[in-house]
Amino acid sequence: MALVNSSLLFGGLLLAIPVLLHLVMRQQPKQLIFPALRFVKQRQDANRRQLQLRHWLLLLLRCLAIALLAGVLARPSVPSLALGDWILMGIVAAALLLVGMLAVLTLLQRRGRWVAGGFGLATSVLAVVLAVMLNRTLARDESKSIGNEQAPVAAVLAFDTSPRMQYLWRDQTRLDKAREIAEWLIRQLPADSEVAVLDSRPGGAAFAVDLAAAQRSVERLEATGVPLPLADVAEQALKLTQASQKQRKEVYLFSDLSRAAWTGQSPERLQQQLGELPDVLLYVIDVGVDQPQNTMLGIPRLAGDVLSASDELELQTAVECLGPGGTHTVELYLEEPNLELPVIRDGQTVLPAARLRAQEIVELPENGSQSVRFRVSGLSVGTQQGTVRVAGQDALTWDNTRHFAVEVQQATPLLVLTPPGGIPRFFVEAVAPDEFRRTRRARFDVRIEEQARLPNLPLDDYAVVCLLDPTPLAPSAWETLAQYVRRGGGLALFLGHNADLASFDNPTARHLTGGSLARQWRSPGDVFLTLRDLSHPLLAAFRDVATSVPWDRFPVYRHWGLEDIVPPARIVVRYSNHQPAIVETVSGRGRVLTMTTPVSDPLRTPGRQTWNELPTGDDAWPYVVLVHEMVRYLAGAGGTKLNYLAGETAALPNVRDKHPERYQLFTPLDQPQDVTADEGQVLVRFTELPGAYRLKGFLQQPIVRGFSVNLPESASQLARLEPAALNDLLGGGRYRYARNQDDIVLGVGEARMGREFYPFLLPLLALILGLEHLLANRFYRRGE
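RE: above sequence
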């Protein structure tokens, strides 16, 4: 407990005044004359006892009044968290006083041994309870942090610097509002205080050398695209306070209190840390807007990051609004290809010009969303950087623009290896129809070779290698295929009657196929493909027509069995008998798809039974789509991913003799920096900023490559936490909430000075004075 005016406690010496009044104003008992002396004596004794009781009670009330007056003037205060304990002790003390008075009365009035003993025992028990409670409260040593508002503190200012803090309200972002309050707060701190500034970026922090340095750190705060969860920031701030030797410790957490900042975080660890640091005062400074409004774009979804020159660019995104809806225009821009750009001119980065290629008008309901789809054709060969934009401005501008990148290539080189006498016609027509090849609109540039020439073929010249019903391969051939896949190639194995168990019984073959080749399965025609799980990218083309694909019209009479399939291999498609039909295996930077039945058998094969009717059934469009999507999926197996989320490591394949070893990297804001390819890849690990990243190199001629980075959609979620949810996260009563400087002044003053008993003692003093006045008038009224 701390006292503001401890010297006024000497006012308790005025207790002598009621004692003197008691001695001076003491009345003598009246003499009464009765016929019988016995009755006179009884009346005399009763009158004396009654007067003694009244005088003692009045003396007690007067003493209590003076003691309470001295206590009120001294203004005692306790830590806010201990206020309940002190109030409870006050109640126990009042009960102790009442029971003690009753015990004294029973002794004076000689009510009996058992009654007096019972009240005496109750008095003793209450006295012990009060002593224990007082000892525990004082043992916490919490009072040392209160009573002096100007004592130096160790303050940690923790800021939520997520992209949401760029929300503009009254010409001020939420981060600017937090800076303003923080700079004011630093100026209010007592002299010799220590201040540390912490934000949502990963990394450590320390106390500044002085308050001016702390203010400069606040001024330099910027939003980050990869923020830590707010619970982690609060934990770091609490831990940082323990590095200071200051007796008083405070943490100020600045945030817009959006629910997304806490999503997925378990509050138990933070609440445990708060419980272990009871001497640290936590303040939550809310700089958010009560009813935010925003129009945002979702992350663009592309049909593929790599396209053929004959393909259309297919892009889909979602437009969503928080608050009132309305009519919005969504625009798609593509940059004009220019091998000379980007370049630095007069200290400025000059970028290719962007041209509007498509636009859509959408009508959004209140708090609703709508999907937007674009199709753009006639793309130039090379890396294309583009943006999708919502025309106009709102309070949060960064999510009105989303970035994407695609690489447009000439027809993808595809190598098809056939066994002796093999007929690849069905397969080739599915992936590159003859009409498309003649008009140069085919996505794949198909080259057909006999399997026997495999050791002499330059596999790295092809994005995909397909083996149609391969004959037994030598171990060296398996190793050649394995090395090709590890370097980023795509391999498709379609097993048929030429396969045998002995050829696949080696570690390399099992690694590529994902399992062990077992016996052949036969059926009379009641087995067919089933697509139960369409989550795999290979099956994306079937998602909209999943229930209308007539797979049962294309029976499978024979297929191989694959057993012992373990991760990273996975089953993509099964037969109706639950056996694996298509198995995917990832090896290095490439992928392998193994299909356990052939895709090139004619309807009638001389000398043997046809294995299936997939390519020869009536209206075999499911076969065409499946084979085409398999090859297309494998064509992207070289690690060509061009669209990333902030914080992910971008990895672009860098093929020797096709790409340079050194590049200049142009990021959305920073100056260009040198990047060197390593082990066939260009790695860019610093992708915190959203926007277009460009790689410019030279190999006989300028080569421009690149990728795009977007912030996750959760960064646009502005829905706020309810007060009850904040209590669940931090624990009710363990923090103080403020929205402006006035709230901080009240909260900080109360925490540093403690909760005063003045509001509780003053009514009690008035009550005791009233009782004293009432009893004095009753005891001393005329005629008694």
